Amino acid sequence: MTASNNADLRRLLRGVTLPALLLAWWWAAFRFGWTEAVLVVPIEKVWDTAVRMSSTGVLWQSLGASLARDLAGFALGSLAGFALGIALGLSRLLENLVGPTLHTIKQISLFAWIPLISVWFGLGDTAKVIFLSLAAFFPVALNTFEGIRSVPRELIEVGRVFALSPGQMLRRVVLPAALPSIFNGVHLALIYAWLATLGAEYLLTSGIGIGNLLTDGREHLWMDQVLLGIVMVGLVGFGLNLAATRIETRLLRWRGNSTGQY
Amino acid sequence: MAHAGTLEINNLSKQFRVKGQSLDVLDNISLSIKPGEFISIVGASGCGKSTLLRLVIGLENDYQGEILLDGKRVVGTSLERGIVFQEHRLFPWLTVAQNVSLGLLNADLPEREKDRSVQEHIELVGLKGFEGAYPYQLSGGMSQRVAIARALVNRPEVLLLDEPFGALDALTRNHLQQELQRIWEQEGITAILVTHDVDEAVYLGDRVVIMEPRPGRIKRTVDVPLPRPRDRGSYAFAAIKDDVLAEFADTPPVALVTPPQTVSDWQFAW
What we know:
The complex is a heterodimer of chains A (262) and B (270).
Chain A: H1 3-31, H2 43-56, H3 58-90, H4 92-105, H5 114-121, H6 125-149, H7 153-161, H8 166-203, H9 210-220, H10 223-251
Chain B: E1 7-18, E2 21-33, E3 38-42, H1 49-57, E4 64-69, E5 72-73, E6 81-84, H2 96-101, H3 111-124, H4 140-152, E7 158-162, H5 170-187, E8 190-195, H6 198-204, E9 207-212, E10 217-223, H7 235-246
């Protein structure tokens, strides 16, 4: 095992310590009779529920449905945001036309759109995906725009000195220089989209998903199901964040240890 | 060997608009540069020497007068004129080799030729072995050397250098001046260096053009007829350097103390 593997392992163990301690405390509270509360259940019961729902397939169906909607909305919103961000970044005219409206709309809380969306699109999958696209759209659009506008003029001049065509300038100078900002936006969009997935399932209640598991559990006071839902949400969020960070490190390797050093 | 270009600057004038008023930055600059010549332009900050280079490279286009390369009017940027800026301006997301090959992106050569030229120029600036390094891994001096390789790789007719070593420490600067001297001799191109360092100007130039500010004008041109590589410690070098420096001094040069003529003029200590 190399030195860096050792360091990674140590960091992983340290990160896992707190959750492990919390779980141990939770288990001990019921095992040693510290509490008889009805609103929390022993950890074993949550595990049993997990096993049961997994074997009947309900758990995976719900998870699958939520993730599918999440990724669909994320992809749609990100692509639209990316396209608009580039257009606004490259054209001053467009920025003057569209910018003020965009900056105003972005202030509207996401959940304020729900009544409108539910009236136009119902309560099913379509409405949810549209809601998620909105959540993903704004961070990507704004960060892409910002990234393109912040390309250092010095690098553009180098492109001009080497007689780069406008297409080459965009592909080889502007977009790579804007990539850290764009990626920032995409990462945020990923986080917001998953948060919005849960919100969408609470408010647009038709269909299946993790959020629906949570609301069902609450209605019937099946606390084991509720707690399981929370654990699933946390795990998925953690997994998505980890994937995004890994990809970012890979793509932006050239930054080294400093940030923004042009 | 690259083909060295002949650069003619005739009655060049430029104004900038500052706060609604017109500011004269360059006033009637005329300069004739022979092919393969190395011209050093010295001047204090604000005398327009960087603006002059930006006009020649084609990054600024609004001026009066003419700039001719090989008899043809200069319009915008072109691969025939290269420039090294004060900051290295390397693309952080590209390796050394990829940065250098940027200069050949629009050149009309087969891929193999391009790769060979890139490798050649990386070795020319003394960075063999660093082809795969990223700019964040390089020191300031190394980055500037990559910038020089990038400017030379497509064999421009004229190489412009805008205070290229200004951002580096004194030791690296000294070393890179010698490197530049060697590279210029090897490539045989026309070069124009803008600097505020008189020592650098005299060390590298065949002629030193002295500019004065507000508005930018050519005050004088001093020839440097010394063999290369120049000895910075030689009397001739120092004399030419003093000559140039005198143009920037506010006080007249101090005269040598003349020894007393007669014994009666001597003062005894006791």
